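User: Show me a protein chain along with its predicted structure.
Assistant: Here is one chain, sequence first, then C-alpha cells.
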Amino acid sequence: MRELCDKVICSVPFANLIRSFTTLTMDGVNRREIRRFRPGLDYTVAHYGILTKDPRLDVVLTFVDEASMDESSWADGECGGFEAYLLADEEEDGPAEVYRQAQDDESGVLNISAAFNAISIVLRDEGLMRFVKYVASSAPGSRWDVSVECVPQDDSDDEEE
C-alpha cells in the first residue's frame, strides 16, 4: 500500500489525472495516510481541530475485501465504514461527539460508502469536517484506504483579471 501511495497516488501523472477530472491544479500534498479500519475496532473522529481555513481536495482510494463482500452491507451504511463530511456547528466549541442527520436537514452532509477499488474526490471547503464512521463488528471485512489531502492552487488571481 505504501508503494501504491508513493509511486502512484503522489505521482505527477496522477496529479495530472486529478486535474483533468477537477480542473484544479494542486500546490502539493498536505497529508497522506494509509489506513485500515477493522470491524468492531476502528474509526476516525470529527473534531474542530481538523477544520482548515482554506479548501482541500480529498482524494481517497478505497478497498474492501471483494471475495467476502456483500455489496449492500457497505452501500446502505448499516455496517459503517463510510467517509462522512459534515458542516461544523458554528455555535459549538467542543468536539462533534454525535453524528446526527435529520431527514430535512440542510447541513451539507455527504456520505461515501466503502466499495471495492473505488476512488472519491471531494473538494472540502472551509468549515467542513470529515471522518470515517465506526466499522461495526457485523461488517463483512476491513476497509482499507489511501487518503491524500491536497492543497488546490488559489485561483483568485484569475478572478481579478
